[in-house]
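Supplementary notes (optional reading)

For those who missed the lab, this is the record we used. Protein: Nrdi. Length: 59 residues.
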Amino acid sequence: MKIIYFSFTGNVRRFIKRTELENTLEITAENCMEPVHEPFIIVTGTIGFGEVPEPVQSF
């Protein structure tokens, strides 16, 4: 299973790196429209009052 993540401030990125998982993908402007053809889990922070960031919604 792939772990896909988005990090505004770097906190989520640091968390994912600490897990030492190998099958990860960070959502960026360059790959936000790239399809994923395997099961995945999305890890992200939230903004405002628990809203999902726009790049994650677009993904």
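If you only remember one thing from this example: The mean pLDDT is 91.
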